[in-house]
Every structure is written in structure tokens, then in C-alpha cells.
């Protein structure tokens, strides 16, 4: 169509945002914010059986400053909410959030005085994973969905 | 299980024991709170009773079902004698306080804080009676049956900010 057809084999034309997003989506450094039993399922999904490193997300960073993907895994109480917010604020842009399991997404069956009814009341969430707990396949599916979302992000948003 | 503990207790504190019962080995004594510490010390120090291990301390809220409204429940165990005893202390809603058992069993420290936090029963003489589970600024006692079931008290201040 455009310029590339005349320059076959010499170089690859792309947009800066495409190249950046491609690099970002395959090098997600996750911060597992694990609070409850979903953590066990997260470990299962993160270990070699399901091999999350196929998607370039195999390294958990236990400092939010080194991470760009926040996995909120498990029930979050109101008492813990300021901590979660602080962890999120400490992460450098660009950053994404995955809400792992029913409790993180909606409070789950903890519809009571102490539980946050969904972490999206505290921080923005990109992908929700349902389930109590979710199957590892669902986690990988969520990761792929997030990668697709990252690939579509405009350059301006990444300031 | 032996009924010895209940018998000894009833003999020694006849005017303090309101009722006793046991079914399938769960000896229970309902007692007044007036001489609670004396009773607890008696149970701990007597050689043949020797309740040396505090198992559990909790509160029952009989809201609109029974008077007095609250019941403070002590679960005790003796490691040497291998027997158990449950004590129940009824307290009124208007005067929901019992003497702290901390001087007898320091292990009840956090149990009393939890009972105070969730039920609002005051333990007189506790060295550090403040909330243990709920956060600072939380209003009310959430396990009371008249705590509104849909009431939420989220923390609105960020970490490090003053409210």
C-alpha cells in the first residue's frame, strides 16, 4: 500500500506506539499483592506447570517500584485498603492492574462490615478474573487479554 | 472429663454460681461477675483443678432473646489434669463490663481486646484495652446483633495522611 511495498526487504515500518506496546506487553513485571487463599492458586498459575513465562510475565518483583503489573490476589479489607492504594501509587507508569478472583473483584461472599466490595473502589482495574479461586487457564487468559489491551494503547496515554 | 471442677467450684463459691450443666463432658458453670477474679484464681491455683491454659474467650450477644444481653464465655483447660471447663458470665447491656482476666492468664490479653473490639464489652483492669482488628476511628462494634448489616466504614485517608 504505502512506502513498505517499494522498500521490500530493507526495513520494517511500524509506529512507535506499536513497537513500544509490543515490547511492554511481553515484559510484564508483576507485583503479586497476595492477601488470601487465591495466593495458592496464583502460585500454581505462576509456576512451571502453566508456565506463565511463555507470556513474558514470569518474574515477580516484590517491590512495587520495579513492577508494572499489579496482581491483587485475594480479599482486601478496609484496613488494608490504604496499603493497596500506596502500593499502587508507588508503581511507575505505565502500570496495569489485574483483579484476581471473586473477592478482589467484588468482595466475593464477604459482604460484610470489614471487606472492600471490589478493589475498583480504590484503584483502577484493567482486567477482572472471576472465580473462587480462578483456574490457572483463566489467569493466563486474563494475561492475554491484558496484552491485547496494552497493544491497543495510544502513545499519548503513556506519558 | 470429670465433674470435679464444677463440684469444687459450687462448693467454694456457692453464692456466685448461678447454674451449672454438663452434657457429653462439656462442664459449664454460669457465674456472677462480682468475684470473677477470685474464681479464676481459684481454678488456676488449686492443685487438683490447675486450669493453667486459657483456651478461648469470647462473647455471645443474645440481642432481644435473653436478658441480660451479653454473656462472656471463658474456655479453660488443664494441661496437667487434662480436663476442661467453660465459664459463662452474663452482663447487662447498660453495664457491659467484667474484670480483666489478664492478671490471672496473660494469654487472654488479645482475646479480651478482640471481645472489646467486636462486642464492646469492657474489661476493667486490662493494661492495653484498645481495638485489635478494626481500625482506628471505627465506630461501633460490628459483631453486635444490632450493628447494621450493610453499614460500611471505609478508610478515606491515604497512608501517612492525617485524618
Question: What's a concise summary of this model?
Answer:
Chain A is α/β, with parallel strands linked by helices and 159 residues long.
* Unreliably modeled segments of chain A: none
Q: Which protein chains make the most extensive interface, counting residues with beta carbons within 8 Å of the other chain's beta carbons? A: A-B, 14 and 15 residues
How is the largest sheet of chain A built, in terms of strand order? Answer: 1-2-3-4
Q: What percentage of amino acids of chain A are in beta strands?
A: 5-15%
Rg of chain A, Cα atoms, Å? 18 Å
Structural shape of chain A:
elongated
What is the CATH domain class of chain A?
Alpha Beta
Instruction: Please report which band the strand proportion of chain B falls in: under 5%, 5-15%, 15-25%, 25-35%, 35-45% or over 45%.
Output: 15-25%
**Which consecutive residue ranges of chain B, at least 5 long each, have pLDDT under 50?**
none
Largest sheet of chain A, described in full? 4 strands, parallel
Give a verbal description of the structure.
The complex is a heterodimer of chains A (159) and B (163). Chain A is of the alpha/beta class and 159 residues long. Chain A has one domain (28-150): Rossmann fold (3-Layer(aba) Sandwich). Helix content of chain A is 32%, strand content 11%. A four-stranded parallel sheet of chain A has the order 1-2-3-4. Chain A is elongated, with a radius of gyration of 18 Å. The relative contact order of chain A is 0.18. In chain B, strand 3 and strand 4 form a beta hairpin. The mean pLDDT of chain B is 89. Chain B is built from three helices and seven strands, in the order αββαββββαβ. Classes of the chains: A alpha/beta (159), B alpha/beta (163). Chain A binds chain B through residues 78-79, 81-83, 85-86, 89, 112-114, 116-117, 121, and chain B through 133-135, 142, 147, 149, 151-155, 157-160.
